[in-house]
Design brief:
Length: 148
């Protein structure tokens, strides 16, 4: 395959407006390029989570995150179908590194391009590139597109 061809795109979302904008951008790009599209949501499971809450509350929090992601995925699937695309969606749980999980998934999928939002649900949205986006850009083996 030529280096300038994009055939497999992974977009990572966290439910923030900018990540959902990145998903819309990914749909348009996948359509133009005739590429496959995968959408990933990573639930960060801090090791300290079980220390400060009950197992039941921790499980409920994860389930709430999964349901939220399913809502985002449904909207993305509808938009992708409207563009004539089939999209794969996945939610995964990660104990250590959200950027690491995104990069690992991109390698598993053989992604030619990773798309992320420039800032997510954490603070300092106006001033800094988000830490997840920054680390994905820094450590990914394939090109990364950051949507502002």
């Amino acid at each position: 395959m030529a280096e300038d061809m994009i055939s497999n795109i992974l977009v990572a979302i966290d439910g923030s407006d900018v990540s959902l904008r990145a998903a819309r951008y990914a749909i348009g790009l996948a359509k133009r390029e005739g590429a496959k599209l995968a959408v990933l949501h990573v639930i960060h499971l801090p090791a300290s989570g079980l220390m400060y809450t009950t197992e039941s509350a921790f499980s409920q929090s994860i389930e709430k995150s999964r349901k939220g992601a399913e809502g985002w995925f449904e909207g993305i699937r509808k938009r992708a179908e409207g563009a004539g695309l089939d999209v794969k969606t996945e939610t995964m749980e990660e104990l250590y590194s959200v950027p690491g999980a995104i990069i690992k998934k991109s390698e598993e999928l053989g992604a030619d391009l990773v798309i992320v939002g420039g800032s997510g649900l954490s603070g300092f949205k106006r001033f800094f590139l988000g830490s997840v986006a920054s680390d994905v850009v820094r450590y990914s083996r394939c090109p990364v597109l950051v949507v502002k």
